[in-house]
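Notebook, p. 212. Picked up where the previous page left off. The plan for this session was modest: take the two constructs that came back from the sequencing core last week, fold each one, and keep the raw output in the notebook itself so nobody has to go hunting through shared drives later. Recording the first one now, exactly as returned: residue sequence, then the structure token string.
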Amino acid sequence: MDPAAIETHGLARRFGDLIAVENVTLTVTQGQFFGFLGPNGAGKSTTIKMLTGLLEPSAGTIEILGQPFSSTALHLKRQIGVVPEGMALLGRLTATEYLRFVGRMYGLDRATVERRTEELLEFMQLANERRKMVTDFSHGMQKKLALAAAVIHGPKVLFLDEPFEGVDAIAAGMLKSMLQGMIQRGTTIFLTTHVLEIVERLCSHVAIIHQGRLVANGSIETLRAGVASTLPGAESGQRLTLEEIFLSIVGAGGGEPVQELSWLT
């Protein structure tokens, strides 16, 4: 049996007295498209930073591809790709220079870097912008470049933090097809986004974090059946949307009156 792609036990991160993530235990199997959801400030980006070695946990353990993971585990970092919050691109390079740099940092030989750089620029529709510096790119173009850099080495595990933010509909459709193709080839994708329709369309399993703690974890169908069984008058087979599931679990869908602004009523 293959080891899990991602496995955590009791993962926690504190910033002084603030508990950002507490006791997160989850397993993501290899080849799974996994959605990681939560409200703003719930701990999603902090968790991804720990899972990718950008932030040391305060407590708990992480395993990537069955091996203990830490910020110093370079052999494992070479097997993951990351589109982080804020992207962290090198703005004074061109797109070609940036992809060459990233490819070489992952240990690819020059011929492979050149071939994959050209393919990625064409695929991401950035070939005509190869001479422009990254700082002059639009937000959507920077997103596409960040994703290109995250996959240039053919990662076994791909972490995506809001990858579709600022990307136009045509590019988003293209990127979704690419990600689904990666899943079919056995890549594991760990996605966090606020666009629940994307998660519902792409992901087979989801976890929901709220106030730093996991409050749900499982397949979308399992969560759908579990939430439907708790709603008055609903049947366990009722097909709830992921938005309804999410709002029910985080406590924002319980029929509470909607707050209104006095000058707009």
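Okay, moving on. Second construct, recorded in the same format:
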Amino acid sequence: MKILVTGASGFLGSHVVRKALQHKYEIRAFVRPSSSLKNLEGLPIEILAGNLHSQEDLKKALSGCEWLFHLAADYRFTSFQGNQVMQTNIEGTKAILQAARESKIAKIVYTSSTATIGIPEDGSPGTEMTPISKKEMVGPYKLSKYLAEQEVLKAAQQGCPVVIVNPSAPVGTYDSKPTPTGRFIVDFLNRKLFAYTNTGLNLVDAEDVAEGHILAALKGRVGERYILGNQNLDFKTILEILSQITGLPAPRFCLPHGAVLFMAYANHIFSKNILRKEPGIPLEGVKLSRKKMFFDPSKAKKELGIPQTPVEEALKKAVKWYQENGYVRG
């Protein structure tokens, strides 16, 4: 069986491609013409470059495929090109859903995000049923994923065979950009983290997330959402695990959220007006860190059987990959 993977050259996309190959599927990778193909080097797959907003390109990519994994997205927590983020994540999703319906694709797995899932006021982990409103969307990335997911849910109600997966904070190999989660690991390895703030993340091995995509296509119920996550850890604990893995000291000082937010605003303004590049401190990420981003993956564990590789092992793989691929000085 042939499947199409959009965003195949990216962090999660390349993991989904590898996992699908392990399951003996035939892969067509849909990438932007400007995408680096390093994450796909040496893989026995078909690569097709095209535009996510071109129905001609999309129908060509979908031709002969039975399944679609739509992972293509603009993943930036702080961006000076907010319109571009919105265009890619919302309009691109609408375009490929239309093409998939016309191409009679049997199963679609749409990669959303836990950014679309609420956090209970009592601090307990969010679930697929935890409500969230549009007014809670911080920045273009989170808003775009929320609105795109609404389009996917609407399509499912109209008969489109789509399942939604919501990865939490994946870590592992091939995070070449890197993602916001990967960036703080790289900063730790380069001794750039001198303090931390009282927040938390749900970490999960990127390979488990990729397997979760395959399981969603095989077992997922149409129109349902599945949190692909693993362990909830506060930021201090994550840094201590990284310290144990690397032998580097973990930062000792915990900064109040207000102080970090002030630094993020200052860095944002300086980067935008002086450096004219993406800031080192993601303003939207800092705003989100006001709450611990804890989630409950029980539904995906029960209905899909997503693996739960120990987070320590995922972090070890990430550290080794960054070290071996030139992200760490010295």
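Notes on construct two before I forget. The longest strand covers residues 26-31.
Flagging for discussion at group meeting.
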